[in-house]
Specification:
The structure is a single chain. The protein is of the alpha+beta class and 83 residues long. Helices cover 36% and strands 20% of the residues. The protein has a 4-stranded mixed beta sheet with strand order 2-1-3-4, covered by helices on one side.
């Protein structure tokens, strides 16, 4: 599974997406907008992105934190049950 995460510094949801990846035990590549690429480059590459984090899995745009959680639950990578 090829996971790319685009995030920004100081983004609380971006911290949570990394926690989700660690909980699921999956490898990922993260890019910090403003360090690894400019905001303009990001917007040019992903004009429909609405915010951060922005997740792509196996070349499929997943979206933000909520969409990624739903994807992981559907693929049984994490459980939706509370401990």
């Amino acid at each position: 599974m090829d996971i790319q995460i685009y995030k920004t510094t100081g983004c609380g949801y971006c911290v949570k997406i990394i926690e989700l990846m660690n909980r699921a035990g999956v490898e990922y590549t993260d890019y910090v907008v403003g360090r690894d690429l400019t905001l303009e480059e990001f917007k040019q590459q992903y004009p429909l992105a609405k915010g951060f984090p922005f997740v792509i899995i196996d070349n499929q745009v997943i979206g933000g934190l909520i969409e990624t959680v739903k994807y992981f639950v559907e693929k049984k990578l994490v459980s939706s049950r509370k401990k």
